[in-house]
Amino acid sequence: MSTRQPAKTNDSRIAVLESEMHKLDGFFSRLDLSIEKITELNVSIREVLSSHETRLNATEVELEQQFSMFDQRYEQLHSRISTVQRELADEMKDETKSIMTAINDLRSDMNRHQAKEEDRIRHIERRQWLIMGAAATLGFIIGNSQFLSGFLS
User: Fold this and answer.
1) Can you tell me the distance from the alpha carbon of 99 to that of 91, in angstroms, rounded to the nearest whole number?
2) pTM
């Protein structure tokens, strides 16, 4: 009897161990399945990261090209602004010169016209004084004709 009890105990232990081995076998198969899925996810994540890295590199290259183009256009715009500014300054100088020339021409024309008008006015004033003097003399002669006729007779 003493030999059988340890056999039962051993058998029951073996049975318990076998049952636990079956449980562990299920656990290990699920663990293997989880590891396979994690490996698949890891590969997918690597592919996604590789794709994103490629996109980021392409975006960096595109941004560098756009910045370079922006700098070129900025320099072109600055050059155009400077050119237009110089051209406008030159045009303004030319226009100012032509306006000043026109003003000086107008001033000399006005001075000539004024001198001509002043000469004309002086001539008219002389004529008026002559006429006034002649009229005064004639009036004096006519007014004093009796007095003078006494002198002449």
Assistant:
1) 12
2) 0.43
